[in-house]
Amino acid sequence: MFADDPEYKIWISLEVKEEPTGFSEGSESDELSDDESEKYSSEISDDDNEALLTAEWNNSCEDENKNVCSFQEQTGIREHLIRKDPTDFFEMLFTEELLLQIVWNVNQYGTKLRQSRGNKSRAARWSNITLNDIKVFLGLLFHMGTYISNDMSNYWKSDEIHGIPIFKNSMGRDKFLLIMQYLNFENIDNAQGHQMPQGSFIVDYFNKIMEKTFKPDKILCIDESLVFLKDQYLRGKESKDGVKLHLLADQYGLVQKVLVLQEDKNKKTKTKVRVNEIIHMLLEERLGVGHSVYMNKYYNSIGLSKHLMSRNTHTTGILMPDGKGIPSDITQKQLKKGEKITKYSPDGISLTKWMDRAEILVISTEHSGEWEERTTKSQNVCRIPTSISKYNHYRGAVERHKQMMSYYNCQHKTTNWYKKLGIHILQMLLVNSHNLYNRYGEKSIPLAEYRTVIIRHLLRKDEVSDTSERNFTEMHTLIKIVTTPLQKRGRKRCVICYKNNKRTTVQTTCSKCPKQPGLCMGKCFEEYHLNLKE
């Protein structure tokens, strides 16, 4: 499972005013360890910052080719994953591995509540769900973003104003609400609680599946996004209305990596050090290959640009005027509209201050501050510094993604905050699959049309010809393989895939079969047991 891979552990820690049931404090995985914090914050030493204050800035660059970063990495979607149909691009990111872990988590938590509560509670009616159930659940959940209602139960009403027949025909209201109640995004190995901060896998899965599926081009963009959590106050956050996500995207708005971190009040560290940690965690797999990164003013600093330049990575972005190391010639210079001033460091870093409607200060290790002519919408020719022109062109990558996310928001007020964050990640995967389809599929289609195809695909029920065969397969359930001293990895070869000359190793086996064969979730599991029935 992706969640079991320690290389991609990015723990999420969110602190709430009133902790839900099952949430325990003191988890060591809730925040960066001291070793990780020291690793990222020590990249820029105090000596480097002192050198920035005493560096001599010139009016011209001595060597324009000094900071050339060659980018030679193979980019694009993996060849063996290329498909032509929208559903194939969707299943490329929404793998059975992801759905299997969600099914497991929901069943585990539902069974736990059924045993602990009385017979008259709603939990007493709970029965384990299947892979097809979670597909229908996701289809209806995504469809709620098409027709927004304040109350989830309105979708199952029979009146003409609120009711939508597809909801009632696909899944019962009580079953959907039970799945929503037990929905969680916790690692399988963590059996305590159900909250997202305690070992979430959904962000780890997002980052690894995107790394496995797609290699971005040279241009990257780092920006922040906010998941709004109304009526809930999160202490330690910069906004009381939501949780901040740090996103790494390519120039076409495809989010490659997402990071959610909690500010640590116990550590008296400066914001600059914290930003350095965020940047290095986002670019951990991208450093040294020649990428050009565009960032907003929250992330940029002269010291960070100098360090990333030493790692063969360009940076360009807005710089705060009160940042450390900015020469007084730039900060104190009074400009008229249309004027600029540019300074270059011995390392080739350019600082350009330009007066448009307001003063703009841009730092870049790739572009100079020379004038560039551009034609406006009114066909007027204007001059703009090159570094600012390039930043304006590429800065909107994450904004395009957030714009697509805002069109069909399927979150509701009654949903708990940790579920909102997990559902938001699932919507990000859906938007990413649409982005990939438009770039590598048969044709480019609007997001509304793409969502309709995917929702129809998810609501399509897998038919089983005989009721007795269906009951036979439901008696057998998949469980995670228990590790032994001789088999530490806990993996087996899928017997059905092996018969079809396909090598597949899985972490799941049947709980009832004596031989406990390795089986893939879905068709392999059903085919194996239908053969036993015959």
Which tags fit this structure?
36% helix; 534 residues; two-stranded antiparallel ribbon; eight-stranded mixed beta sheet; disordered N terminus; alpha+beta; elongated
Quick overview of this protein structure:
The protein is of the alpha+beta class and 534 residues long. The chain has 18 helices and 16 strands.
Structure description:
This protein is an alpha+beta fold and about 525 residues long. Among the domains are: about 80-200 and about 410-460, no CATH class; about 465-534, no CATH class. Helix content is about 35%, strand content about 15%. It is built from 18 helices and 16 strands. The chain has helices at about 35-40, 45-55, 85-95, 95-115, 130-145, 165-170, 175-180, 200-215, 270-280, 300-310, 330, 385-395, 395-405, 415-440, 445-460, 465-475, 495-500, 525-534, and strands at about 75, 215, 220-230, 240-250, 255-260, 290-295, 315-320, 340-345, 350-355, 360-365, 370-375, 380-385, 480, 490-495, 505, 510. It has an 8-stranded mixed β-sheet, with helices on both faces. α5 runs antiparallel to α15 (about 445-460). It is elongated and about 80 Å long. It starts with about 35 loop residues before the first helix and ends with a helix.
Topology record:
Blueprint: H1 34-41, H2 46-54, E1 76-77, H3 86-93, H4 96-116, H5 131-143, H6 165-170, H7 173-182, H8 202-213, E2 214-215, E3 219-228, E4 242-250, E5 255-259, H9 271-282, E6 292-295, H10 302-310, E7 314-318, H11 328-331, E8 340-344, E9 350-355, E10 359-364, E11 371-375, E12 381-385, H12 386-394, H13 397-407, H14 417-440, H15 447-458, H16 467-475, E13 478-480, E14 492-493, H17 495-499, E15 505-506, E16 508-510, H18 523-533
Parallel strand pairs: 3-6, 6-7
Antiparallel strand pairs: 1-2, 3-4, 4-5, 7-10, 8-9, 9-10, 11-12, 13-16, 14-15
